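re: ur msg from earlier - yeah i can do the flavin-adenine dinucleotide complex, just paste it... oh wait u already did. ok heres what im feeding in:
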Amino acid sequence: MDTKTKDTEVLIIGAGPTGLVMACHLLRYGVKFRLIDKQKDRAQESRAFAIQAKSMEIFQNLDIAKEFLKLAHSNVDFAFFINGKQQIEVKFKHFKHQDTPFPSVYFLPQTETERILNEFLERKGVYIERQKELITFIQDSQGVRANIKNNITENIEKITCDYIVGCDGAHSSTRHVLKLSFEGNAYSQIFNLVDATIEWPYSRNKFLFFLGKEGVFVHIPLTEKISRVMLAKRLNDAEGKFSIPYVTELESLASLLTQVPVKFINPIWMSTFRLHHRGVNRYYQNRAFLAGDAAHIHSPVGGQGMNTGIQDSTNLAWKLALVLKQDATVNLLDTYETERHPIGKILLKTTDQFFSLLTAPGFLISKLRNWLLPLLIKFLFSKRNLEKHLFWFISQLNIHYDKNQFNYEIIDKAYSNFKGGICPGHRAPNAPANTSDLFTFLAEKPFNILCFKIREERVNNSIEKINGLIKNYKAWLQVHVFVLSSANKLLFKRYGVTSSAIYVIRPDGYVGFRINSENYSVLADYLKNFFQIKFE
Ligand SMILES: Cc1cc2nc3c(=O)[nH]c(=O)nc-3n(C[C@H](O)[C@H](O)[C@H](O)COP(=O)(O)OP(=O)(O)OC[C@H]3O[C@@H](n4cnc5c(N)ncnc54)[C@H](O)[C@@H]3O)c2cc1C
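and the outut:
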């Protein structure tokens, strides 16, 4: 394939949340890309409703978190009912967890999330090429050539690029072209979804979960007036085939499940669907990558779907950028598979287990569930530590990657070891730092070298030495020095620093490297992993 004069570096297929976040990152890294979508307009259905803390941290890094905070509901209380009787109420403020600026779940319709991301791109002069559909593509060692159909003119345009990223959702054409399997199953329950103003005796501002012998009912506040309601009848009662119900039928079902009168006023979206849980067998093949729903779909339990796609893109974008700038070799791209695929598998397993626990039919199972679940929830929220773990799990802050060539630590036996702190492959937490907070520093450049010093001596010398190491990579890397002081005490504690130390934080907010001394030659060895082509 003659791809010497390629049309672009990265071709992104699909402008859902995964594709939009991929575009935002590539823009920041100065990568040339095109973003196409087969639809004429943005989807109008609210779909995903929960933005998790890790996604908010990513948005903060892109400088758009404020826009989400302005619109999203947070600190939404949660109550759990069995057979119409409230079992427990949990205040979301319990989740207050200090090492993130976003200690909550943020409720916002996916349409708004996409709008904010879209407008961010448009402000920077990037526009989605709409009504353009990926039909097929071929790839070789030189690049990718994709056939894109213009859905207005029906013409086929050939786009050549270095890499193609399929963010094209559950029915991904990219995945089909790659002939990758998408194994899993459909759940047998039929779900009904209504976005409407709800009239009932309960609050519109709470996340309410009703479990009963007839089925499941979930109420989520989307905006001040509009609620998302999901209802499912148990399998033994369901007909097992689709029929779109009338609003009045859904109101009757809602009343049956909640045991109170329910009215849906002016529904703006109603849908009936069967949920699937499926995962792809590989996240990439040579120059073609899959991200988001194209790689994994699962039940909406825990509001993880969209957030996982956002993190897929965040993991992949900087790796593509480094390779495209010829600052790193292509083996960095393998870590997209080794880091993100296991996360996708765990997500499918846990959401499937939890979903099955909630929906499995059968008299005995339902008796056991109705007895066990309230106890479990009460237990979880009675223990500060468990509550913290639950938040960590839902918020995706607990996601971590295995040690590999790009995530490792060196322990210098001549100095005192880290006292806990953050292992390579784990998320870098926030903390007050100097006169600001650490995340403010991390937003400046993609990679950040944190140099911790117990005493304020030879600070300039440290900066000079590290700056010397990274002089060819100033666009990528920045060094920050933190001296132990009352302002930085918590930072040192969170990072487990007991003697001088160096951490390297990757562009996606994960720790890549740490050493418990100021050994610059070991730091240089680590950086050569990423920047091995031109590193001096
Ligand atoms: C009915 C419903 C309810 C949901 N509710 C929730 C929820 O409550 N919570 C939650 O977390 N998740 C929910 N989800 C899932 C969530 O919406 C997805 O996880 C999220 O949209 C995934 O984003 P994505 O960008 O990967 O894919 P998508 O949002 O599906 O975007 C894919 C994009 O690719 C485009 N495209 C597809 N094929 C091509 C092609 N060949 N060429 C060009 N463009 C193409 C599409 O037009 C689309 O814009 C729900 C999904 C559905 C369908």
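cool cool. The radius of gyration is 25 Å. ping me if u need the other ligands too
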